[in-house]
Specification:
Layout lengths: L1 E6 L3 H11 L4 E6 L2 H10 L4 E4 L8 H11 L4 E5 L4 H9 L4 E4 L4 H20 L4 E3 L2 E4 L4 E4 L2 E2 L4 H12 L5 E2 H7 L9 H14 L10 E4 L3 E4 L2
């Protein structure tokens, strides 16, 4: 069961969304007041927050900022405020997504699933993973190669850590695009090859005789310890 906190003062909308999402094994707790929402989040464990911006007593941007100070949890903004400054401010203050009202509940469900999938991957990687010459410390977002910290871009780190997580298994380019947040979902498969090439260079690999990252023709790559 996925537990979601919805901070929303539009009771009709909240009830519609709750009725829809509960069909998909999601339990929704509604808080119409932002202060109640914050206190509820402090005393009960939730997997994700859906947050309106126009709330009584406290602006949603401030609520978003407070949530991010206290909790590492996905935040989806659900708001009728379409101004680009609100969108930018929300993302800068810790929101993970911004969904302008009105929207189809199907889209909200899809975004929830996407964020939960990424959150699950991050949690799995929280503990240090030792994979031979490579050690991943996901908490610090650091990968050490033979005891030396690699200098990696966000995309390089996420691709390499994902390949290590899937050690021995074949990972398609599409799977990398889908599961690595730093990569634009519209990225061409060719850009994945370029990033993998940079990683190989930093590992001192010969692409023709790879030690760690092996290409699988027509599919993607696999990491071998």
């Amino acid at each position: 069961m996925t537990n979601i906190l919805m901070i929303e003062d539009d009771t009709e909308l909240a009830e519609i969304l709750t009725e829809y999402l509960e069909q998909f094994d999601m339990s929704i707790t509604i808080a119409e007041d932002p202060y109640i929402g914050l206190s509820t989040l402090d005393i009960k464990k939730f997997d994700l927050v859906i947050l309106d911006l126009t709330l009584p007593g406290l602006d949603g941007l401030e609520v978003c900022k407070e949530i991010r100070k206290r909790h590492n949890i996905p935040i989806i903004i659900s708001s009728a405020r379409h101004d680009i400054t609100d969108k930018v401010s929300a993302l800068e203050n810790g929101a993970d997504d911004y969904l302008p009202k009105p929207y189809n509940p199907m889209e909200l469900r899809a975004r929830i699933k996407s964020h939960l999938r990424r959150q699950e991957f991050q949690i799995e990687m929280l503990s240090e993973k030792n994979s031979g010459d490579l050690i991943v410390d996901a908490d610090k977002r650091v990968i050490k190669f033979k005891d030396n910290e690699l200098t990696l871009t966000a995309a390089e780190y996420e691709i390499l850590s994902y390949l290590i997580k899937k050690e021995g298994g074949v990972v398609s380019r599409e799977e990398l695009i889908y599961n690595c947040e730093a990569i634009n979902e519209e990225s061409a498969n060719k850009s994945i090859d370029v990033i993998v090439g940079r990683i190989r260079h930093k590992l001192g690999e010969d692409p023709k005789l790879p030690r760690y990252i092996h290409a699988v023709r027509g599919i993607g790559y696999k990491y071998i310890k």
